[in-house]
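WARN retry 2 of 3 for item q-0093 after timeout on previous attempt; input resubmitted unchanged.
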Amino acid sequence: MKKRSILTSLVLLCSICFFQISCSKDSDDDTSYNQELKDYTPGEIPGLGDKEGELTGIKYTLPEGISQEGEITGFSGYYGNFSKVNTETQQGFKASISKKRAALKVDLANNTADFTRGSGEYVRLALNLKNSTSSEKRFEIPAGLVIKSRSGHYQNGVLLKKVTITIPANSTKLLDLHMYCGNASKSSSSSSEQYDFAVVTNSRIIHDLINKLKNKKINIEQYNVQEDYSSDYWDIVDELQDILWTLTDSFQGLSESELKYLEELPND
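OK item q-0093 returned
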């Protein structure tokens, strides 16, 4: 009887330990943005491209202990000198590219931000993020996040690969966040515009693209852009922007050549 009691206690103890480990693992996994995806067709994603309507998905909120200080704006710095370039069309965007890239190199050299993260070129945002806790906070900003232009006159930003940020205890850091343009017919980001966290999109075709990029080397922090002005990174950004526009601003899906390009991108 005593042996049976001991055995029962051991089984119960093991069950409790397993339950605690399982719960701990679940809490470490980023499952908060799991959601039912919508089968929007290219060019018909609400709030992206020229499609009217509100952006759809799960509302994004910063993790506990992290807050936004002030407004999200287009990044200023030296880059702000070029915020008035006429970029009403895709041709206008590309005409201003060399100036924007030169400005970014100056900003990186001058350490105008604490963190430069993400991937993309036409949407570059300044976010002051505060850690109000007494310990260092490391967190991820998820792929699929859309940051919305408040006036609606500027492009909404789309993050195609997650970024990781570490903010020391009781401090505020400036994030220079690079994102892709989700509305080709609108103006690129401006330091005079204000933006808001919107949603993690529930568009299946965008998540399909995100999954193809999950283990690819596409984020600016993965390249030494400051010193070698890496042509690899800029070539990738150009191609990925056109690929996203294929989904947001045209009525066609990705071509075989575009799918092949995504597959052949360098791995992390």
